[in-house]
Design goal:
rod-shaped; 131 residues
Amino acid sequence: MPAGTSQEATALSLGNRLALERTRIAYERTLMAWVRTATSMITFGFSVYKFFDFELDPVDRLTSAIGPREFGLSLIVIGLITLLVGHVEHRRDLRVLARDYPAMPLSGTRLVQALVGIFGSVTLIAVILRI
């Protein structure tokens, strides 16, 4: 083995590995913040739609510039866009981190994000179809 090329030199030091792990966990927390914000927007949009759908008379719905359905749809779409932006940012950050941390574990947060995305899509369809 040539001088200066030992197994310890190629492996990450404990301090560097822990620093990369803290960075990865920070990225996971950031994605969860995106997911939490998107979930809030989606559920609030659906709640507004359903609440005012029960409360307003059909005549009142026709005279307003923007009704509860349109407002709810807007919030749900904003929530889904927020989820997409969070996904793109998280994916970009993990790709950069993977260059220095090839043994990085898989992200479990992406499963939560996918479930919220499915939930949001179903909610969007329900509001569009007036279910």
